[in-house]
Amino acid sequence: MPIAGEPADLYAMSECDHAALRASIYPKLLFSGDPGALISPAAAGAFAAELRNCRHIDLGPGAHYLQEDHPDTIGQALRAWLNEITVSAAA
């Protein structure tokens, strides 16, 4: 994880990845927890807002292992999202 642009090679890779996400049009789903392990829910929401076709779901309390803290909520949200994008793709 690059911090303050270092190490430079990882920072460049991360910037490239983020640019690809911003350019993409495919559906995306981003979960976050509070306080979050690396980014806050507010930062995750701001990042999701920069992306096309991205839904941000703030799961509430959690840090690194959100899938262990919120398995049912994640599963239900994922099922609903998949159903939604499948219907959209068929239309």
How is the largest sheet built, in terms of strand order? 1-2
Beta content: 15-25%
Task: Specify the biggest β-sheet.
Answer: 2 strands, parallel
Question: What is the N-to-C succession of helices and strands?
Answer: HEHEHH
> What class would the helix/strand composition place it in?
alpha+beta
Overall shape: it is flat
Tell me roughly what share of residues is in helical segments.
40-55%
Runs with pLDDT <50, length 5+? Answer: none
Number of continuous helical runs: 4
Radius of gyration: 15 Å
The mean pLDDT is 93
Question: Distance between termini?
Answer: 40 Å
- What does the oligomeric state look like here? single chain
Total strands? 2
What does this structure look like?
- There is one protein chain.
- The protein has 91 residues and is α+β, with helices and mostly antiparallel strands.
- It has a domain at 29-90.
- 55% of the residues lie in helices and 19% in strands.
- The chain contains four helices and two strands, in the order H-E-H-E-H-H.
- It has a two-stranded parallel ribbon.
- It is flat, with a radius of gyration of 15 Å.
- 7% of the residues are buried.
- The mean pLDDT is 93.
Short structural description:
By secondary structure, the protein is α+β, with helices and mostly antiparallel strands. Helix content is 55%, strand content 19%. The protein has helices spanning 8-23, 41-50, 66-69, 71-90; strands at 28-35, 54-62.
